[in-house]
Structures are given as structure tokens and as C-alpha cells.
Design goal:
The chain is of the alpha+beta class. Helix content is 16%, strand content 37%.
Length: 135
């Protein structure tokens, strides 16, 4: 199946609690922003995590990567763009975090689908909505 990656966008306003003593967003919080954008991406195609879990599908993270280019600060409005690629039993979600059109963080997470018994499974057809431009 040939597919074109869809781009999804999610916005976050940085709360004061997410900053460190230097006034920067604490580095680990970007992984939280990735998760928030990933959940919103699934919700946007009609597959909220809760629905997937009801179907017995769970999405553990196998790998996570972040590259920091510039810091974000309290009250910045961040745009997190996501794109998903599926290959075999794995799928990768790429993230781009921007502030005022300036790219400040890039990263990705790699996932597999598992059953409630932790058995690895192929991504269900419904997950292809994440990459297929045609509805």
C-alpha cells in the first residue's frame, strides 16, 4: 500500500511549571508535548487512545529521540506538527516543534501495536488513516 504522510498540528501554551531554573522548557517536557500531539493526531482521525484500548490495541513506545535547536520559554505558543509512517509491524511518528515559525525541536517516536496480553500485532487498518490522504 502506497501512502502519503498526513501532517497533523497541535498547539501548546508553555505553562510556568514546565520551565527550569534557566527559564527554558525542561528538556523532558518535549516528550510530553510529543505524547499530547500524538493523542490529538489519533483523536483527529477518530481513533482516540481510549477507543484503541477498547479494541485491545496498545501502542508502547520502543524508541524516542529529541534534537534541541533552541529553547522555548514560559507562555510561548508552540506548534507541534506530526507525521506518521508505517512499515511492517512498526510505525514511526516524526515531530517538529515550532515557535513563531522557527523550528526549535525535532524528534520521533517508534511504536508497535500490542494486544492486552502484550502480543505484538500488525497495525490495524484503522491506523492507516494516519498516513493516507484519502478518507
Amino acid at each position: 500500500m502506497s501512502a502519503i504522510a498526513r501532517t497533523f498540528k497541535h498547539f501548546v501554551r508553555v505553562p510556568y511549571a514546565h520551565t527550569d531554573q534557566m527559564g527554558f522548557v525542561y528538556y523532558a517536557n518535549y516528550l510530553i508535548y510529543f505524547e499530547m500531539a500524538r493523542a490529538e493526531m489519533l483523536r483527529e482521525v477518530g481513533l482516540p487512545y481510549t477507543e484503541l484500548e477498547k479494541q485491545g490495541v496498545f501502542l508502547p513506545v520502543l524508541e524516542a529521540h529529541c534534537e534541541y535547536k533552541s529553547p522555548a520559554h514560559f507562555d510561548n505558543r508552540l506548534e507541534i506538527s506530526t507525521q506518521c509512517r508505517i512499515k511492517g509491524i512498526r510505525f514511526r511518528i516524526d515531530y517538529k516543534v515550532s515557535r513563531d515559525n522557527d523550528l526549535i525541536v525535532t524528534g520521533y517516536t517508534v511504536h508497535v501495536c500490542v494486544s492486552d496480553k502484550l502480543k505484538i500485532m500488525r497495525p490495524p487498518k484503522s491506523l492507516w488513516k494516519l498516513i493516507d490522504q484519502a478518507d
